[in-house]
Structure prediction request, 305 residues.
Amino acid sequence: MIKDILSILDLTREDMDRLIERAIELKKNQKAGTSMKKPLEGKTLGLLFDKHSTRTRLSFEAAMVQLGGVPVYISSATTQIARNEPVRDTARVISRYLDALAIRTYSQELLEQYGAHADIPVINALTDLYHPCQVLSDLMTIVENKGSYDGLTVAWLGDGNNMAHSWINAASVAGFKLMLACPEPYFPDKAVLDKAVNMTSSDITLLTDPVKAVTGADVINTDVWASMGKDDELEERKKVFAPYQVNADLLNHADENAIVLHCLPAHRDEEITDEVLEGFRSVVWEQAENKMHMHKAILEALMGR
Prediction:
C-alpha cells in the first residue's frame, strides 16, 4: 500500500481488492463475535473536519476504537489553522503527535498539501472533488451482494459531483462498466473524466438520458442534487434534476436483480423516492454500515504496517 489515499487513483486494482476482501472479513468477524487482536493499539487517528458529518465521522471513530486505537477530533475553527498557520507547519507538527490523519474539507489541493508535508498517512474523508473511502465501501457492498464487480454495469444518476468523480476513478482502476447520466450543465469535471478515459480501456459513458444509463444496469447509484455548500441552488436544481429521480418506473429498465445505492443523507422523494429507498432493491443501510468496516481495513493497511 502507498502512504496516502487522496483519491482512488492512488490505488491499484489489487489494492482495492485487498481492502474489500479484508473489510468483508472484518465485518464477518464482528458479526460472529470472533475475538480479534487490536492491531492499532496505542495508535492515534486525527479527524480534521471542516465539513459537517454523521456517517464518516462516526464510522472512522468506531473503526479506530474497534481496532484498539484512539480517534482525536480536530476542528479547524478552534485551532491555529483558523489563524492561517501554514499547512506545511501544521502537517509536520501533527505528524509528531498522531499516527494518521483523515481530512474532510473543501479543497482537494489543501488535502494534497497535507499529504505532501505530513510524515503520516493522510486519508481523504471527502473533498469537493473526491470521496474515495465512500466509493470503496460502496464497492464492498456490491461485492457482498453480487459476488464481484467484474462484468457489472454501474449506473450513476444526477449530479456530476465528488461521488461521480470517485466512481469514474474506480471504474478506470477496476475496469467495470460505468454509465453516468447527468444534466449537461452538471456534467462531471472534464479533466477527471478525460484522465480516466485516457488511462484505461474500461467502458465509461457519459449521457444525459437516465433511461439509457440504467437499462440493464446491475447497480443504480445516486446522491443528493445539491451537495454541501450548494444548498442555495436546490430549488433550481430540483427542476433540472427531476427526470433523474431514482423511482420505480426508472428501475423497471434496470436488470431485474439490480441493487440501489445511496451514500446518504437522502432527500426522500427528491433524488430517490421513499418507496425505492425502503424497497427490496435498496442496500443503503448495509452500505452505510460498510463504511465502518472499510475504514477499519484502510486504517489497518495504512497504520498497521
The CA atoms of residues 190 and 286 lie 32 Å apart. The chain has twelve helices and nine strands. The chain has a mean pLDDT of 95. The longest strand covers residues 44-49.
